[in-house]
């Protein structure tokens, strides 16, 4: 009898959910929602998303406008596709949309959404951001890792010089990925780790798989009651990735705890890594919230994912665009010759003088933002934006891919033309909504300064030290630029090129 009552209650519950959802939809329709394409029963607009959702949503915005209402499953989404509408959500009404929605991948793989990227807005999150900004991503902390960046780049250039001798083609995607991973490991953990150190699954591949799982359309997010069934098999994969993260990070923390005395009294002058700093904060009890190992691991994952994947993908896109546009490549090299000369490598102190390189970086972010949909925002209350009713608990997607290609803002929007920024005040630090690679407002990326240093330094070194030619007689215009969607959008195919060393030995 108890068993029968259980199933009757369960069936009644599942039947009631669509009815409640329908009643809520009818109530919303009484208010002026943003324009919306025609959807399907139950699925809503999920069927309109393909392999590259940012491109699909851009196409939809062209027809329906810069603020569009869509329903993915039972969950309302607001898609924002212009600079003016982005400013309304990220500045004018920033507080209402500063939180993050429930997210199964982040819940499983980020220790209950304890990380900065997916954490829900509130006192805990504000304290976490303050800690990261002041202790982990301050200018002083970033500068302390300058000798490490120089050392790793020197090793990187030497490895490429070996390829020059045999005129061998190089997988630049793999090389750049390894470089940013090694830089990130030394910054976060204090030393490099090999693939075997993360359960033999591959250090970089585990991080990348986690990023992809966090970006895939998950029925558990769009139909919450289906989450327990794991119909797509995502949940089991997330749990395996979470265990790999947890086992590895526990090992790293234990190593730091066991070597705490040595770390506290370094005689070699090396900067304290980020785990050292986090463990010091945890043990001191000075944090404004109860700070435990779960928080340490969540921040470690944030730091790793942000500094590895985003930097690598950005550098890759910049190099691909420069190789595809030889005249622009030549102008970057001429600027480097003027500022640096051909007798030495680029130093970080040179970067502020490389104005044309900055334009190239901006133009790349405009055409290929590495996080084209940012991370969804979440409305914590009903709100009216530009005359439209935005229901509570809506997910807000800011499509920076669409904003960067808006013909109302950018002349010849599909053309790679860095000179468009000559005399322009548009910056990429979140104050100008025409260009938002790092987001804006309360949820703007706190690691922006570190990311820009890494990207500009690696790109300038690659372009200054080497000339690049495509293999097998491929013409620049034939270079494939297909995207592969994830939280960080990378090239679908690796970037292969032949280097020639150009500095005077």
From TrEMBL:
Amino acids binding heme: 445
Lineage of source species: Eukaryota, Viridiplantae, Streptophyta, Embryophyta, Tracheophyta
Any one annotated GO CC term: membrane
Protein family according to the UniProt entry: Belongs to the cytochrome P450 family.
Cofactor annotation: heme
Protein's recorded name: Cytochrome P450 CYP736A12-like
Main location: membrane
Topology of this chain in the membrane: Single-pass membrane protein
SUPFAM superfamilies: Cytochrome P450 (SSF48264)
Keywords, comma-separated and alphabetical: Heme, Iron, Membrane, Metal-binding, Monooxygenase, Oxidoreductase
Protein's UniProt keywords contain Transport: no
GO MF annotation terms: heme binding; iron ion binding; monooxygenase activity; oxidoreductase activity, acting on paired donors, with incorporation or reduction of molecular oxygen
Subcellular location: Membrane
């Amino acid at each position: 009898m108890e068993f029968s009552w259980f199933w009757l209650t369960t069936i009644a519950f599942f039947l009631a959910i669509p009815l409640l959802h329908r009643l809520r939809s009818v109530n919303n329709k009484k208010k002026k929602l943003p324009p919306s394409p025609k959807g399907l029963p139950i699925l809503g607009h999920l069927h309109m998303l393909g392999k590259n959702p940012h491109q699909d949503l851009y196409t939809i915005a062209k027809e329906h406008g810069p603020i569009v209402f869509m329903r993915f499953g039972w969950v309302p989404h607001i898609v924002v596709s212009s600079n003016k509408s982005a400013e309304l959500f990220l500045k004018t009404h920033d507080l209402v949309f500063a939180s993050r929605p429930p997210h199964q991948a982040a819940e499983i793989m980020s220790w209950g959404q304890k990380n900065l990227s997916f954490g829900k807005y509130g006192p805990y999150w504000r304290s976490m951001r303050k800690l990261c900004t002041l202790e982990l991503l301050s200018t002083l902390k970033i500068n302390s890792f300058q000798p490490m960046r120089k050392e790793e780049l020197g090793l990187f250039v030497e490895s490429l010089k070996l390829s020059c001798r045999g005129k061998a083609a190089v997988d630049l995607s793999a090389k750049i990925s390894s470089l940013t991973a090694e830089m990130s490991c030394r910054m976060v953990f204090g030393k490099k780790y090999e693939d075997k150190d993360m359960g033999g699954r591959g250090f970089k591949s585990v991080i990348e798989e986690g990023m992809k799982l966090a970006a895939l359309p998950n029925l558990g997010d769009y139909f919450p009651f289906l989450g327990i069934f794991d119909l797509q098999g995502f949940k089991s994969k997330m749990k395996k990735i979470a265990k790999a993260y947890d086992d590895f990070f526990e090992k790293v923390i234990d190593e730091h705890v066991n070597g705490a005395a040595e770390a506290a009294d370094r005689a070699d002058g090396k900067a304290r890594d980020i785990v050292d700093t986090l463990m010091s904060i945890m043990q001191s009890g000075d944090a404004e919230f109860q700070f435990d190992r779960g928080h340490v691991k969540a921040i470690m994952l944030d730091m790793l994912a942000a500094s590895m994947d985003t930097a690598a993908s950005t550098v890759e896109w910049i190099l691909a665009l420069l190789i595809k546009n030889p005249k622009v490549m030549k102008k970057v090299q001429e600027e480097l010759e003027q500022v640096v000369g051909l007798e030495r490598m680029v130093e970080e102190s040179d970067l502020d003088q490389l104005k044309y390189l900055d334009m190239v970086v901006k133009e790349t972010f405009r055409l290929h933002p590495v996080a084209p949909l940012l991370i969804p925002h979440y409305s914590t209350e009903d709100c009216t934006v530009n005359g439209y009713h935005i229901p509570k608990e809506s997910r807000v997607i800011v499509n920076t891919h669409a904003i960067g290609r808006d013909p109302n803002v950018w002349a010849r929007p599909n053309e790679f033309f860095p000179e468009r920024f000559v005399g322009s005040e548009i910056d990429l630090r979140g104050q100008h909504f025409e260009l938002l690679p790092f987001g804006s407002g309360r949820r703007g990326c706190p690691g922006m300064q570190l990311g820009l240093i890494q990207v500009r330094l690696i790109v300038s070194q690659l372009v200054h030290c080497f000339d690049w030619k495509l293999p097998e007689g491929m013409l620049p215009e034939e270079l494939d630029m297909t995207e592969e969607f994830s939280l960080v959008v990378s090239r679908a195919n690796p970037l292969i090129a032949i280097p020639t060393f150009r500095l005077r030995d």
